[in-house]
Amino acid sequence: MPELFPYRFSRARAERTIAATRIVLAAFSLFAIWLDPAEPARFARLTYLLHAGYVTYSVVLLGVMWRRSSTGWLPLVTHVADIVVFSVFQYLTLGPSSPFFIYFVFSLFCGAVRWGWQGVLLTAPAVVIMFVTIGAEMSARLGATEFELNRFVIRVGYLVVVTMLLVYLGRHEARLRDEIRHLAAWPATVGDEVADEIKRVIDHSVGILAARRIVVLWEPDQEPRVQLAVWTPDSFEITQHTSTEFEPWVADELADASFLWPPSPAAPFTVITRRARSARVWTGPPVNARLMEFVGESAFASATFQTERLSGRVFFGGLEAASAEILPLVEVVAREIGASVDQCEMHKRDRQLAIREERIRVARDLHDGVLQSLTGIRLDLQSLATQIPGEPLDAVRSRLLAMERALATEQRELRLFIEDLQPVRQVARDEGTLEMRLDDLTKQLAAQWKTPVTLRFIGTPAELQPDVEQALPPMIREAVVNALQHGRPSRVSVTLQGQVNGLRVVIADDGHGFPFEGQYDHDTLVQSNLGPASLCARVASLGGNVSVDSSASGSKVEIRLPAAAHV
To answer: 472, 510, 562, 566: which could form a disulfide with 502 (CB 3.0–4.6 Å)?
Structure first.
């Protein structure tokens, strides 16, 4: 299976290492037999021939394994074969006194390399049974005078000690691999609930350090508050405190150091610190007394973390039989917790910013849409109220019906606008093409303000993003209503010119112009707070710009929008 390939490649590499080691060991054994034949003499030639065959077998096996990327059952078969062959060598060379006792030790190491500490535990009984069986047979055949009982006992003890050490090292390696695996699987903080995400991160860190209480304290930069998260197997809580409530968090000598506090009746204030890769002993109360109420009185380790937006410290309490060697791991886990807390804080700020921006967008849409139209209707009602006595009844009825249609249109637009605010659109509607929507808009404005508003398209614009296309009609409405309301023109023209990379929109009128005269680009308008500020902000949010040309004979507002706007 493809996902197992790295694991199989690791096994194949281990088999190549064992095969190469086997050749070296067998070659030296063969040279030793040739140099000094083994005892008893009657087995010397047989032992020599068997070793020569074993060297050949080792070379062939190395050749077989050298180009293989997987191992299959070969490791188990060769492992059993090695133990059998090594037992034969032991028997032919006086068993417990054999110079080839190292072969049994080699078998134990092969089990450790292949299958970890479990492999050692499975290999050790077979090796010990073989060695004891050969020793018992030799003792019965040679007698007490020739059988070296002391060497036999020592070598049995040697096998037991080697087994214990290899099991310890194997378990230590397995624990390190498990810690690395947990660190590699560190959860990403992507949810909206900060407390839930931080709890999930802390739950994951418990699997690495086996702590029974975890306290996380952090302080956002440039904010007078401290967040305190306290985790136990039965509860989790995040509380907010003033920045001075826990100051200083730890003793000044420990401010930038990771440390371990193993409370002892004999030395209650002895702290093991780690700074710059060196461990030292420091004496004194390590933690603020108020903070100690949350950390607890059991053994704990602590480390700091620092990110671009916040700084903090993590306390891992309830650590049993902890030593200074745990501090590097504590630093790594604390750093990961700090990074996750930073992501949560950043996500929270981004969400708040998005809410503010959405409120601004809603306010702009209401201002540029419904409020502008209602303003026009209100002015029309004022005009009608002053002209009713001298105006024919049919004309009054016609104007009232026009205002009723305008109100119905705005009512429909407001309803659709509310639907757009829903998390999921409940009602699908066909808004038509951009040209159709703009044509309806200009006709509506002309009817409301009793002023001709013309619309013209030049060229074919590049395909606009949906956000840009949706924002374009409200922007044109705002620019046209500004011209109608403040310039009192006799006509307004809207021109849309398609360009390679976007769209150019020009709103021109023959009214009185803006209170200022001259040509102004976008930056000047913003810096000087001139012109339509809301329109400039909306266009800028889409990556575009606004320019204004104003005079006593009229004004021209030019909007440039890119096709691929970054909204």
So the answer is: 562
Residue at which a domain ends, from 183, 208, 231: 183
Residue 353 lies in a domain: no
Is 547 within a domain? Answer: yes
Determine the Cα–Cα distance for residues 51 and 26; give it in Å rounded to an integer.
7
Lowest pLDDT segment from 27-31, 271-275, 359-363, 521-525: 359-363
Q: Give Cα separations from 474 to 415, 438, 461, 480, 504 (angstroms).
A: 16, 10, 18, 10, 15
Q: Which has more pLDDT, 387 or 66? A: 66
Q: Are residues 167 and 200 in the same domain?
A: no
Tell me how far apart the alpha carbons of residues 530 and 527 are, in angstroms, rounded to a whole number.
8
* 63 HSE (CA, 13 A, CB side): 6
Please report, for the domain that includes residue 239, its CATH number.
3.30.450
Identify the helix (H) or strand (E) that includes residue 281: strand 278-283
Pair (50, 94) in one structural domain = yes
| Measured distance CA(131)–CA(103) in Å, rounded | 11
Q: How far apart are CA 530 and CA 484, in angstroms?
A: 18
Q: Is the pTM of this model over 0.70?
A: no
Residue 371 lies in a domain: no
Residue 160 has φ and ψ, to the nearest 5°, of: -65, -45
For residues 515 and 477, give the distance between their C-alpha atoms in angstroms, rounded to a whole number: 20
Cis peptide before 263 (omega within 30 of 0): no
Average pLDDT value for residue range 533-558 = 89
What is the domain range of residue 176?
A: 2-183
Instruction: Extract the tokens encoding 325.
Output: 């060697």
Identify which has the larger pLDDT, 161 or 62. Answer: 161
pLDDT band at 428 (very low <50, low <70, confident <90, very high): very low
Tokens of 240: 């907010």
Q: Is the domain of 41 the same as that of 167?
A: yes
Question: In what helix (H) or strand (E) does residue 440 lie, and over which residues does it extend?
Answer: helix 434-449
In this prediction, residue 110 has a pLDDT band, given cuts at 50, 70 and 90, of: very high
DSSP 8-state secondary structure symbol assigned to residue 356: H
Q: Is residue 346 part of a domain?
A: no
Residues 83 and 119: their CA atoms lie apart, in Å, by: 13
Beta bridge pairs of residue 236: 231
Name the DSSP class of 423. S
Split at pLDDT 50, 70, 90, the class of 316 is very high
Q: Which residue has the tokens 């913003």?
A: 526
- List all residues 6 or more positions away from 140 whose beta carbon is below 8 Å from its beta carbon: none
Q: What is the pLDDT of residues 73-84, one digit of tens each?
A: 888 889 999 999
What angle, rounded to 10 degrees, do the helices at 327-366 and 149-184 form? 10
- Domain end (from 183, 207, 223): 183
